[in-house]
Amino acid sequence: MRIIAGSRRGRVLAAPAGPATRPTADRVRQALFDMLLHAPWGGHALLADAHVLDAFAGTGALGLEALSRGAAHATFFETDRMALAALRANIRTCRWEQECTVLARDVTRPPQAPRPASLLFLDPPYHKNLVPQTMTALQAAGWVAPGALAVVETARDEAHPYDPAEGAHPTLLAERQHGAARLSIWQL
C-alpha cells in the first residue's frame, strides 16, 4: 500500500497483519480521489488547505492521501492498538507529525472540535450501520463544516446509510462500487 499521488507519492504505508484492519486498496483510493478532483462539485479547491477528518482511520491511508494532495491538516480517529501503531508509523514515515492529530478514541463519542472539517472520510466496519450515529455525533461536537463532503465506504451489499424516504438527509453526489466495497460521496 502506497500514497498514490501528490507530495508524498510512492511512500509505502504500514498496515497491521490480520483481518481487524481493512485498508482501502490503492486502486480504490485512486478512483475516489479521481472522483473528488474531477467531478463538477469537486476540484483541487476541495483539498487545497482543507482540514480533513479520517474516522475509523485504520492505517490513515485516506487522510494521508488527502494531505499528499494539498490538505493542510488531518485528524484521525482510531481505537485499535495495532492500527494506531501503523497509523502513527505512517505519519512519521510521511513526516507529517505537525499536520496530523491522532485521537485514540471512539469516533461515535468525539470531543468538541477545535475546528470543523470540510472533508470527512468514514470507513466503518461493514454491516454495523455506524454512519448515521457517527455523523450525528460529529455534527453535535462541531467537527463538520457547513457544506462539507463525507466520503463513506460501506460493503457493496449494505443499505445506504441515509434513507431518502425518512426525510431530509445529506445529498448523494456520487456512488461507485469496487469489488466488495461501495463508495458514496455525500454533501452535508
TrEMBL record:
<dbReference type="InterPro" id="IPR029063">
    <property type="entry name" value="SAM-dependent_MTases_sf"/>
</dbReference>
<dbReference type="Pfam" id="PF03602">
    <property type="entry name" value="Cons_hypoth95"/>
</dbReference>
<protein>
    <submittedName>
        <fullName>16S rRNA (Guanine(966)-N(2))-methyltransferase RsmD</fullName>
        <ecNumber>2.1.1.171</ecNumber>
    </submittedName>
</protein>
<dbReference type="GO" id="GO:0052913">
    <property type="term" value="F:16S rRNA (guanine(966)-N(2))-methyltransferase activity"/>
</dbReference>
<keyword id="KW-0489">Methyltransferase</keyword>
<dbReference type="InterPro" id="IPR004398">
    <property type="entry name" value="RNA_MeTrfase_RsmD"/>
</dbReference>
<keyword id="KW-0808">Transferase</keyword>
